[in-house]
Amino acid sequence: MSKTQDNLMAAFAGESQANRKYLAYAKQAESEGLPQVAKLFRAVAEAETIHAHAHLRYAGKIGKTLENLSDAESGEVYEFTKMYPEMIKEAKSEDAQNVAKYFSYVASVEEAHSKLYRKAIEAAGKPADVDYYVCAVCGYTHEGPHNADCPVCGAAAKAFYKIA
Question: What's the pTM value of the predicted model, to 2 decimals?
Answer without folding.
Answer: 0.88
